[in-house]
Amino acid sequence: MRILTIFALPAVLFAGWWVLSAGSKDFYRPPLRTILVAFGDTWFGPRIADDVLPSLARLAAGYAIALLLGVAAGVVIGRHPAVRETVEPVLEFMRAIPPPVLVPILILIAGIGDLMKVLVIVSGCVWPILLNTVEGVRAVDGVLADTCAVYRIPPVRRMVLRAASPQIVTGARQALSIGVILMVISEMFAAQSGLGFTVVQFQRGFQIPEMWSGVLLLGLLGVGLAGVFRLVERPVLKWYHGQRAAEKEW
Predict the structure, then answer these.
(1) Where are the alpha helices (DSSP H) in the chain?
(2) Nearest to 149 by CA among 137, 139, 161, 158
(3) Cα 4–chain centre separation
(4) CB-based contacts of 129: which residues, under 8 Å, 6+ apart?
(5) Which of 54, 100, 141, 167 has its CA 20 to 30 A from that of 176?
(6) Rg (the chain; Cα; Å)
C-alpha cells in the first residue's frame, strides 16, 4: 500500500504528460515519447562515465566538505555565545550572497577546473547545515548537559551531536537539494564535462529532445539522492523516531 501511495502521483503526472504532449508539433516542446527515445540514446552509453559520474563526484566532494565544515563550525558557534556574537554579522553577510554570483570570483581564485565547481557547491551547501547545527546545539537541554557533566560523559560526541542531530539532518537534507542545483550551475561556466555543461550544449545546438532528457535525468537523480538520504537518515535518527513514537502512545 505504501508503494502505491509513493508512486501514485508521479504515475498520474507522467501519464498526463504523455497524453497531453502526444500530438505536439512544437519544436521546443516535443512529445514525451520523443524525449524518452532521446533519453535512452543519450544517457545509456559513454555519457554515464563522461558526464554523469564526474558531476556526482563533484557533488559528493562539495557536499562532504560542506557537511564537515558546517557541523564543526556550528558546534563551536552554538556552544559558545561569545563566538556566536562575534561571527554572526559576518555569517549574515556571507549567507546573503547568492552562490552563483561567486562563480566568476572562484574562477579567478581556483581556475576553471574541478576545484572551482566543488567550491561553488560548498559555498551554498554549508549554510543550511551550519545554521541548523547552531540552532540544534543551542536547543540542547540544560538538564541533559548537567547530567553528562556529572557522569563525565564527553559532551560533544555523546550529548551535543546526538541531541542536535535532528536539526543537523534537516540542514543536510536542505543542503543536498541546493548542492544538485549548484552542481548544474557550476558546470555551465568554463566546463568541458558534466550534466550542466551537456544540457547547455544541447540547448545551444538546438537538440531539444536531448536537452529535455537531461532535465529529466536531473530530476531522477534528485529523487534517487533523496531516497539514499532517507536510507542513511533512518539509522542515524532511529532513537529520535522511537522517542516520537513513544510520545504519541502516551
Answers:
(1) 2-21, 32-43, 47, 53-79, 81-95, 103-110, 114-138, 142-150, 161-186, 195-204, 208-236, 238-249
(2) 158
(3) 26
(4) 66, 67, 69, 70, 71, 74, 168, 171, 172, 175
(5) 141
(6) 22
Q: Would you say 75 and 161 are in contact if contact means Cβ atoms under 8 Å apart?
A: yes
The one-letter code for the residue type at 233 is E
Per the CB < 8 A criterion, the answer to whether 190 and 107 are in contact is: yes
247: cell is 510520545
Cα–Cα distance for residue pair 125/222, rounded to 1 Å: 15
CA dihedral 115→121→122→124, nearest 10 degrees, is: 150
Q: Does pTM surpass 0.90?
A: no
Comparing CA positions, the residue from 179, 176, 46 lying closest to residue 123 is 179
Q: Is 215 exposed, middle or buried (0-12, 13-18, 19+ CB in 10 A)?
A: middle
pLDDT single digits (tens) 210-241: 999 999 999 999 999 998 999 988 888 887 77
In one letter, which amino acid is 12? Answer: V
What are the angstrom distances between the C-alpha of 205 and each of 208, 210, 243? Answer: 8, 10, 55
pLDDT at 156 over 60: no
Contacts of 108 (CB under 8 A, 6+ apart): none
DSSP string over 188-227: TSS-SSSHHHHHHHHHHTT-HHHHHHHHHHHHHHHHHHHH
d(CA 130, CA 171): 8
Encoded amino acid at 181, one letter: I
Tell me the one-letter amino acid at 192.
Q
247 vs 61: CA distance, rounded Å: 38
